[in-house]
Design a protein that fits this description.
This protein has about 300 residues and is mainly alpha-helical. It has 13 helices and no strands. It has one domain. The model has no long low-confidence stretch (mean pLDDT about 90).
């Protein structure tokens, strides 16, 4: 592996993770300051990003995959299920958690997915419980306790709806990660994720069509935020992650991918001025530590490709 390619790979994965993290914070800004509807944002984000990812693949390698994925009826059914119960479920629950709370908590709760996968595989007797699993689960549970209660048993420091949607986001991401495996073994990531986004966006269009929006009420700043969430925080972030795998190992991309929750926390606290207490920082450190622990484990079955 030559050095220039490696530097490029590092740039791609770092920027991709940062774009993902900041994208959630920018979405929070749109919800709070511009009263953007969650359904509309998720619909628009999925449709545009999905179309762009498929376009990138079409003008790249093996363009026949873009439409070839629909020739096998079994794969087509799996892709539709993945698009609705995987992609749409992850995107909607994550954005709903941000809308009811903030991007920092939503992102950290979504990253409970690896723990949910570990527990699922153990219950299905597809994996044996190890000491590292116990440490991983302990860090996740401890991190959640400090993050959501700020170390006090008297009450929650985060709105209950935000917690519920955040945990559901973790569940959806766990399903997304497991269900995607056979699809990604046969077709490129950009093809599967691109079509899944379009399917999810199309399904949600029946609830909130993307054209039903008062665009005249938005400021130039709001349009800039919308472009960032859709293009940089979704399409480019995922594209950069996939490109980084061309010159970096999966372990390296997973480790650097932990910059996403860190970026979400830092931008939420210092840009949006959200209150974050001492024990919530402790909880954040526990969850990021859990992510790093999983990334360092070569045998981990919970390596996540972000949606």
């Amino acid at each position: 592996m030559n050095r220039p390619n490696r530097r490029t790979g590092l740039f791609f994965v770092i920027m991709g993770a940062i774009f993902w993290g900041i994208g959630g914070t920018v979405a929070q800004k749109l919800f709070q300051q511009y009263a953007i509807d969650v359904n509309w944002l998720v619909t628009t984000r999925l449709l545009i990003a999905g179309f762009l990812l498929l376009t990138v693949h079409f003008f790249g390698k093996d363009r026949s995959q873009v439409f070839g994925v629909w020739k096998d009826r079994r794969i087509a059914v799996q892709l539709i299920i993945f698009g609705i119960l995987g992609m749409l479920a992850v995107q909607y629950t994550y954005m709903a958690s941000i809308n009811h709370g903030n991007a920092a908590v939503a992102t950290l709760l979504q990253y409970l997915a690896p723990v949910m996968i570990i527990i699922y595989l153990i219950l299905r007797k597809q994996a044996a419980l190890t000491r590292q699993d116990l440490l991983t689960v302990s860090l996740a549970l401890g991190g959640c306790f400090f993050l959501l209660t700020n170390g006090s048993l008297s009450g929650l420091s985060v709105p209950t709806p935000a917690i519920v949607w955040g945990v559901l986001s973790g569940v959806a991401l766990a399903f997304y990660t497991l269900y995607a495996v056979p699809l990604l073994e046969q077709y490129g990531s950009l093809v599967i994720v691109g079509w899944a986004m379009i399917i999810g966006g199309f399904a949600l269009s029946f609830i909130h069509p993307p054209w039903q929006m008062d665009f005249t009420s938005l400021t130039v700043e709001a349009y800039v935020y919308l472009v960032f969430v859709t293009i940089f925080g979704t399409m480019i972030a995922f594209w950069f992650y996939i490109e980084s795998l061309q010159s970096l190992s999966p372990k390296e991309t997973s480790l650097l991918g932990s910059l996403e929750p860190l970026a979400a926390v830092l931008t939420t606290v210092f840009w949006l001025n959200e209150p974050f207490e001492f024990f919530q920082w402790v909880g954040t450190a526990c969850i990021i530590g859990m992510i790093l622990l999983l990334a360092l484990n070569k045998k981990s079955s919970s390596n996540i490709k972000h949606p």
